[in-house]
Each structure stands twice: as structure tokens, then as C-alpha cells.
Amino acid sequence: MKNYTRVADITNLNELVQSAIELKKEPYALQALGKNKTLVMLFFNPSLRTRLSTEKAALHLGMHVITMNISSDGWILEFEDGSIMENTAAEHVKEAAQVVSQYADVIAVRAFAQLKNQQDDYEEKVIKAFIKYASVPILSLESATGHPLQALADAITIKEHLSSPKPKVVLTWAPHPKALPQAVANSFVEMMQKMDVELVITHPKGYELSPDIVKESRVEYDQDKAFEQADFVYAKNWSAFESYGKVLSVDRNWTVTAAKMEKTNSAKFMHCLPVRRNVVVEDAVLDSDYSVVIDQANNRTYAAQVVLSKILGA
Ligand code: AN0
Ligand code: CP
């Protein structure tokens, strides 16, 4: 594996998930693989899980890790080609990516969507610039339009909690006071399309994800109907794609409640975290036995570890 910046970079998902489950049993099995190799992680945005789980994954593989909050501690970067840099940006990504490559064997980047201009975000300028100008592999820690490590952790979690050969997996939009990216939802949809599941996406009208992501997947505007017989319910807020970056609704009728979960086939509840309690999902659901959100967070380590191991040539 050269880079891992999109779900589409996975060639054999079953094998990858199986290897992650093996690594979970024996986390130090590939300890020699990363000896004398350095992972540099650059964060343009906050993180709890991604930062700690990816560092832990690298340590399991024997790597060194250098982490930088680049937006607060680094020079402001320019991404436009040919720009006259007389404003705030002090350094171009052309130099920055090449420079970081001198210190790193793998560069991991977190750069969220700006949510101002659909085309700018969906062109993936930041992650693509790192791929273009760095001389080492690039790992996405959530880019403008995708969160592929989260989606891989979600695939591992679903595999571990499978109760039927072809489960019904529901991705439900849920309310949130702030405009959030579509990245987690996009990568989850792409991941489910690679798996043997019955995927149903449910959201209020106006929250349609990109047609390039949804493709032939079923969209059901009635959340109650979507939940019927579900084996997994994955909640996530995202801002509108069409009216780009807008919060069109904060309708609490879409909050995931214990009463709604009763309509399912004893579904497991999933969320990538961080989650706003009693806005996205009720306490009663998050605190229940059927919530697997902590398993998902734990699996972030093994998702990152299996991907790093493939990048290192395992
Ligand atoms: C981010 C998002 O929705 O993309 C990160 C999720 C992993 N969430 C928030 O900013 C709350
Ligand atoms: N799920 C996830 O990516 O969490 P963080 O934003 O805390 O890294």
C-alpha cells in the first residue's frame, strides 16, 4: 500500500480486517517492522482518538512518532500554485511537504473540510498537495471529504459484532448545533458498499450526501422505517452537501433514543465520537450494553496499525 487517504485505497478489505483482528490479539507481533522508522503526524485540527490511537499503533510497530499541531505551531501554509505570497501564508506546501519528508518515513495529516466552498473541499487540495510534494507515503487522519481510518475501524467493529451473515446497517443523520464535515459519513458509506451488508442511509430532506458517494445505496427519509430490523445503527451529524456547509435543521426528532432503538433487531449503536450527549443520541443509548462506541475507538488502534504495517511493506 502506497498511501491510505481514501477507502478506495483498500484492495482486499476482508484480508485487511482479518489482519487487524490478528494484530489486536498480538499487538507487538510486527514490532520489528517499524524499527528506525519515523511517523510524523501533522494536525491542522483537534483530535483525541486519532492522535492517540495512531501514535499507539506506530509504537506497537516499533516506530518513532513526532506529532505537530501544525495550525497553531507551524507557519501558515499556502496551497495555491503560483500565488504571490504577500498575505498571511509564510511557506508553501511545496517546500513544507518536501521538508517534512526529510524527517519522516510516513507522514500522517489531519485537515478538515473548510465547509465554505464545496468544490475546494471536494478537490481535496490539502491531502493531494501532500501526496504530490512529499517523497514518502501519506496517511489521512481525516481529510476534507473522508475519514478512511475511522471507516476501517468501523468495518472491524461490525465484523466483530456480526450476528447475521448480511446485517442491515443504518447510517442515520442526527442533529448537531455546529456545521460538521461529511467526511465520516462519506467514508462509512464507501466502506459499507465494499462489505456484504444491507446499507440504508436516513436523513431529513436537504441532507443528501454527494451522489458520487451514495451511488446506488438506499436512502430512506423516514427514520422510523429505516430503523426497522436494523442490526447496526450508526449515528452521525453532517452539514448539507447541496446547500454546502449549511445547518438546515437541528430537529431533535432525529436524536437517537432508546425508544427508537427498540424498533431495531437489537441493533448495536455506533458513533465515531466525539458525540454530543442528548443532542445526537440519548444518554440511555450511549450508556447501554448495545453501544459499541468504545469498541470503535479501541479498533482505531488496529485500523491504523494494519494500514501502517501495509505501508511499511508487511
Ligand atoms: C469531526 C467531524 O464530524 O468530521 C470529527 C469527527 C471524527 N467532528 C467534530 O468536529 C465534532
Ligand atoms: N473519531 C475521531 O476521529 O476522533 P478524534 O477527532 O478525537 O480524533
Summarize this entry quickly.
The protein is of the alpha/beta class.
Q: Can you describe what's shown?
A:
37% of the residues lie in helices and 14% in strands. The chain is globular. α9 links the parallel β8 and β9. It folds into two domains: 7-146 and 300-311, Rossmann fold; 162-291, Rossmann fold (3-Layer(aba) Sandwich), CATH 3.40.50.1370. With 314 residues, it is α/β, with parallel strands linked by helices. Strands 9-8-7-10-11 form a five-stranded parallel β-sheet. It binds N-acetyl-L-norvaline (AN0) and phosphoric acid mono(formamide)ester (CP). Phosphoric acid mono(formamide)ester (CP) is lined by residues 47-50, 142, 150, 272-274. Phosphoric acid mono(formamide)ester (CP) binds at residues 47-50, 142, 150, 272-274.
Summed up, the helix count is 13
Bound molecules: N-acetyl-L-norvaline, phosphoric acid mono(formamide)ester
Q: Mind describing the biggest β-sheet?
A: 5 strands, parallel
Mean pLDDT: 98
Number of domains: 2
Distance between the termini: 9 Å
Instruction: Find the count of extended strands (DSSP E, 2+ residues).
Output: 11
β content, as a range? 5-15%
Helix content: 25-40%
Structural class: alpha/beta
The CATH superfamily of the largest domain is known as Aspartate/ornithine carbamoyltransferase
The H/E string reads HEHEHEEHEHHEHEHEHEHEHEHH
CATH second-level architecture of the largest domain: 3-Layer(aba) Sandwich
CATH topology of the largest domain: Rossmann fold
Query: For the largest beta sheet, what order do the strands appear in spatially?
Result: 9-8-7-10-11
Shape: globular
In CATH's first tier, which class of the largest domain applies?
Answer: Alpha Beta
- Give the uncertain stretches in residue-range form: none
